[in-house]
Amino acid sequence: QVQLVESGGGLVQAGGSLRLSCAASGRTVSYEAMGWFRQAPEKEREFVAAIKSISGSTYYADFVKGRFTISREYAKKTVYLQMNNLKPEDTAVYYCAANVLGTTSVRSRYEYPYWGQGTQVTVSS
Hints:
Layout: E1 2-7, E2 10-13, E3 18-26, E4 31-39, E5 46-52, E6 58-60, E7 68-73, E8 78-83, E9 92-100, E10 114-115, E11 119-124
Parallel strand pairs: 2-11
Antiparallel strand pairs: 1-3, 3-8, 4-5, 4-9, 5-6, 7-8, 9-10, 9-11
């Protein structure tokens, strides 16, 4: 059983910052990438950022470029999402996800078999 546990969500004012963490544990799995997705009420779950486990290459959705930074501690199987200059439209439940070695897509949520339970991020105006 693979477990992904997120932490670091909360309430912040517009322009503020939060740092999300996601720790993977349980059955040993070689991940191709770990990523962050978010889902606002009545909206589809959307890609935010991803990082390749071995190379460290990073990928971002256009709406977070320059504001969010994804990083990882490979040995700890932990990934972080530093979110700066937060906007009210960033309000959502943020999910950590991991896909398996050999997966080619990092932006599609359908390519991620492992998910965390989600952490709420609320940005007030």
